[in-house]
Amino acid sequence: MKRYLLAAALLAGSLTSTTLLAQERWLVLGGDIAETLAALEADDALVARDDTSLYPDSIVALPSVGYLRQLSAESVLGLHPDRILASSAAGPAEALEQIEAVGVEIIQINVPPTLAAIPDKVRRVAAETDREAEGEALAQRLEGELAALDTLPPRHDLRVMFILHHSGLTPRAAGRQTGADEALDAIGVTNAFGDMQGYQSIGAEALVQQAPDVVVMSQRGLDALGGEDALWALPGMALTPAGERGHLILVDDQALLGFGPRTPGELSRLRQAIDALDTP
Fold it and tell me: How far apart are CA 269 and CA 253, in angstroms?
């Protein structure tokens, strides 16, 4: 009889925890955190997101409170959240302080913005949402995918250019200390603009000098530029090996650079696409 009573008590405790979580109103700040919640099937209590949370469709359907780094307390509090699960990049600090001052709990997932930290990020999100078992399984799978990238034969002779572009802005190439630079290093290729810092606009002379073999960018970036013809028409681009051969690879930049659960898989797909190109 005691055994049955103990089992019943444990079940009741589990149901109570799940019910309370479902009754709360959660808000997510950060695309990587939103994707992790969805991967853990812990997104049922979400009532809002920020502008960087763009996957999956169930997250996109939620109302947005604005850009991750430029939040206002008014836009967040207007949706009456009980708790906020946030990336460490969320801000400004003044807005977060105002939100906490009225009693809304903000849980920040403070992990380095690196590939190696993705499994730990998953475990921390899982711990905050009572999904420890699911989180451990996902974290171990991601660790395996990241380890597989380390076994790829290097192709450092291949110079790859990552272009970041949004509507209304000048296309910029990724240099060192960027997510794109870490992504290219992870798949064993050379960042054609790895000698410069951050994301910068590139002139024709620099393009010809650095001679990228492959251009990588997102479909939405290409669309904002005006399509593939507009890409190859950029000053100096036609004179590069990439331009001469039409070597362009389109990626999901949110998956590639978000450093969330989809990132290892997107890195693997990028390397496969590079290997499939007819390169010298």
Answer: 12
